[in-house]
Amino acid sequence: MSDNKQPGVWEGFKAFLMRGNVIDLAVAVVIGAAFTNIVNAVVKGIINPMVGAVGTKNLDNYSSCLESPCTGSGANAEGIEIMWGSVLGATLSFVITATVVYFLMVLPMAKFLARQAARQKAKEGTREVLEVSELEVLKQIRDELVAQRGQGRREY
Question: Alpha helices of 3-101 — where are they, by DSSP H?
Fold first, then answer.
C-alpha cells in the first residue's frame, strides 16, 4: 500500500458542505423563497388591484387575441390568445423584488463597505505618516552621529 491516502467521496462531500459559501448560498435560497412570497402578496394584494382599478381585478385576466375567436381553455381552446397580463404581473414582481433588494440590501451594504474601506485607508495613511516620521527621526539621529563622529576626529 502507498502512503498517499486520498480522501474518500464522503470526506470530500463533507468538506464541500462545510465551506462557507455553500452555507451562505443555502441561506440565500431560503430567504429568497420567503421573500418571493412577500413580493407575490404585495403584487396580488396591492399592485394588481391598483392596476385592476382600470379594468379587471386580476392582471392574469388581461389578454389579447391574435386569431379570433379566442374561446375555451386548455386543449379545447380556439384562436391564439396572448396573456400579456400575466407577463405584466411577473414583470411587476421582478421590478418590486429588484427594488427592495437593491434599496434594503445592496445599497446599505455598499455604503457600509465603503465606510470600512475609508477607515482602513485612513489607518494605512496614519501608519505611513508614522513610518515616515520615524524614518525622518532615524535619519536625523544618523546625521547627528555622523556630525559628532566628524567633530570628534577634528578634536584629536
Answer: 9-18, 20-42, 48-52, 84-101
Cα separation, 22 vs 30, in Å, equals 13
Residue 44 CB coordination number (10 Å): 15
Residue 120 neighbours by CB under 8 Å, 6+ apart:
none
Q: Are 93 and 85 in contact (CB under 8 A)?
A: no
The greatest distance separating any two alpha carbons of the chain, rounded to the nearest whole angstrom, comes to: 120
Q: State the cell numbers at 113.
A: 463597505
The Cα–Cα gap between 43 and 60 comes to: 12
Torsions phi, psi for 62 (to 5 deg) = -80, 125
pLDDT tens digits for the chain (156 residues)?
A: 455 566 788 888 887 777 767 777 888 888 888 888 887 787 778 776 777 677 666 677 777 888 777 776 655 667 777 888 888 878 887 887 788 778 877 888 889 989 998 888 887 777 766 666 777 888 888 888 888 887 755 444
3-state secondary structure of 82: strand
CB-CB contact of 89 with 48 (8 Å): yes
